[in-house]
TrEMBL record:
Gene3D superfamilies: 3.40.50.10890, Ribonuclease Z/Hydroxyacylglutathione hydrolase-like. This is MBL fold metallo-hydrolase. The keyword Hydrolase applies. The keyword Hydrolase applies. It holds the Pfam family Beta-Casp. Residues 250-379 form the Beta-Casp domain. It comes from the Bacteria. Residues 13-229 form the Metallo-beta-lactamase domain. Coiled coil: none annotated. Keywords: Hydrolase. SUPFAM superfamilies: Metallo-hydrolase/oxidoreductase. The lineage of its organism: Bacteria, Bacillati, Bacillota, Clostridia, Lachnospirales. It comes from Roseburia lenta.
Length: 533
């Protein structure tokens, strides 16, 4: 039994952990890195086609976003996730593929004019569609025997609709071990989804540490705080622009704005309009409605029982097409604009920032974690000018933050979650946090509970039978690579995966009629003749 840490090791995003038990190989999460990549990350140590399963904690792209690339490289195993996570991945991975394709096309138009080599998208819409066929939806608390070596159970992590901590029981001969992967743990007291569940026993625990060095502010009435920001912005004649993740944070903001309207907090401005400018957010909102019984909090269920939609209200407008999105900025009436992405790294939010950052009467309101190095982080930390679509934009708008609106547990809540274990785990691995935070939170766990806690680096490899470290990964700081070399490497990897697939097809043809075998051989030889050099 072996675990190897690949992504989100001394980094906040790109969650990916590799496990071997017997002859089975699986991943827990396969996420995309967002923002700067600090360390050289270890590649998956086996061919993608050799991986039997993936277990996904939740749908956020930093936990699921490289699944289409895994598929492009030959993965054809099963992907287990909650029903809500499967539904959200169905829209988020397709959307991510569209973004990859669009950005590659945009860069290639510029590259062609400049005489530079073209780039290739990380993966295609076809890759996303293909990997979605591999998903296996499961229910919370359902114990699933995946195979003789692996049994899993998903419990609610309270972070996002469908988010999970995953219990994994491993069997190798007469040896058994239990692992718990925390996923992203919610802070609790959320308007739509349930509280995170605590677990009682494990031999090994992997816990996230996004906010492992800080405490959230004391709970406030978010609706009232938001109403105050809206009032001052509207009275100044500006727009309130909210960069928000399309899944989770957007729906929560709609919940608070519904309260503002319903409770008359802006009675003198009650006809204000709210634009949800994200096709993904529109689709995700529908998924929220489809998962009321299993995922919604008691308060949200109560509203629905009373005939109230928790995230709908008069004046809410959906912008789906690009033309609808563009028209928002031609309307000079003060309004709320909620758009993705939450860290301002891609998507329509960048257009709204271009139209509003230079306006002193407008407000940009951040309501979620910002990874260091992202545009959102830079704005939140006082950037005076930014580059958007090749233009320098001076920052004159008011920059506000509601840090208490967080999908992640703070240090105390994370420690409370660790306190749910009734017996000391053999080892606690601290992942999914900033470089220094991973170490400091590991120290905090040891100090409070006496548990052996360690923050692994990418490439660190442990024996789960003995708990011993078999190999240390690289501590090397990542060097920047040009997009063209990265794209070239990715395409060649896809070509190798295609070749491996061809060999599997050839082996499966054994026993076919000689006539068919000869025809197939001629086709392969003709293809080889065409591309040989």
């Amino acid at each position: 039994m072996i675990i190897e840490f690949l992504g989100a090791a001394h980094e906040v995003t790109g969650s990916c952990h590799y496990v071997e038990v017997g002859d089975k190989k699986f991943l827990v999460d396969c996420g995309m890195e967002q923002g700067p990549d600090i360390y050289e990350n270890q590649e998956i140590p086996v061919q993608a086609s050799s991986i039997d399963y993936v277990f996904v904690t939740h749908a956020h792209i930093d936990h699921s976003g490289l699944l289409p690339l895994l598929y492009a490289h030959g993965f054809r195993g099963q992907i287990y996730a909650t029903e809500a996570t499967c539904e959200l991945c169905n829209i988020m991975l397709k959307d991510s593929a569209h973004i990859q394709t669009f950005e590659a096309e945009w860069k290639n138009r510029k590259a062609k004019r400049a005489g530079r080599p073209e780039v290739t998208p990380l993966y295609t819409v076809e890759d996303a569609a293909g990997v979605l066929e591999q998903f296996v939806p499961v229910h919370y608390h359902e114990t699933i025997k995946v195979c003789d070596e692996i049994t899993v159970r998903f419990v609610d992590a309270g972070h996002l609709l469908g988010s999970s901590s995953i219990e994994v029981w491993l069997t190798e001969g007469n040896e058994k071990r239990k692992m718990v992967f925390s996923g992203d743990i919610g802070q609790g007291n959320r308007p739509l989804i349930k509280e995170p569940e605590y677990l009682k026993e494990a031999d090994y625990v992997l816990i996230e540490s996004t906010y492992g060095d800080r405490l959230h502010e004391a709970p406030i009435d978010f609706a009232k705080a938001l109403a105050q920001i809206m009032r001052s912005t509207f009275q100044a004649g500006g727009n309130l622009v909210i960069p928000a993740f399309s899944v989770g944070r957007t729906q929560e903001m709609l919940y608070f704005i519904r309260r503002i309207k319903e409770e008359g907090m802006l009675s003198d401005l009650e006809d204000f309009e709210v634009y949800m400018d994200s096709p993904l957010a529109v689709e995700a909102t529908a998924v929220f409605h489809d998962n009321v019984s299993e995922c919604f909090s008691q308060e949200a269920k109560r509203l629905i029982a009373e005939g109230k939609n928790p995230i709908r209200f008069p004046g809410l407008k959906m912008a789906v097409t690009s033309d609808e999105s563009k028209m928002i900025n031609f309307d000079m009436k003060p309004k709320v604009i909620i758009s993705a992405s939450g860290m301002c790294e891609a998507g329509r939010i960048r257009h709204h920032l271009k139209h509003n950052l230079w306006r002193p009467e407008s407000t940009i309101l951040f309501v979620g974690y910002q990874v260091p190095g992202t545009l959102g982080f830079n704005l939140l930390n006082g950037a005076k000018e930014v580059k958007l679509f090749g233009e320098t934009v001076h920052v004159e708008a008011r920059i506000e933050n509601l840090p208490g609106i967080s999908g992640h547990a703070d240090k105390n809540k994370l420690l409370d979650w660790m306190g749910g274990f009734e017996k000391a785990p053999k080892k606690v691995f601290v992942v999914h946090g900033e470089d220094a935070v991973c170490d400091s939170f590991a120290d905090a766990i040891h100090e409070k509970y006496g548990y052996e806690a360690y923050a692994p680096y990418s490439g660190d490899r442990f024996d789960l039978l003995t708990g011993a470290c078999l190999e240390q990964g690289s501590r090397q700081v990542k060097q920047k690579k040009t997009p063209s070399s990265k794209a070239s490497s990715n395409v060649f990897a896809r070509l190798l995966a295609a070749g491996e697939r061809l060999m599997r097809v050839i082996r499966d043809c054994e026993g076919m009629a000689n006539k068919d075998l000869a025809k197939f051989a001629d086709q392969i030889n003709a293809l080889s003749d065409k591309w040989s050099r």
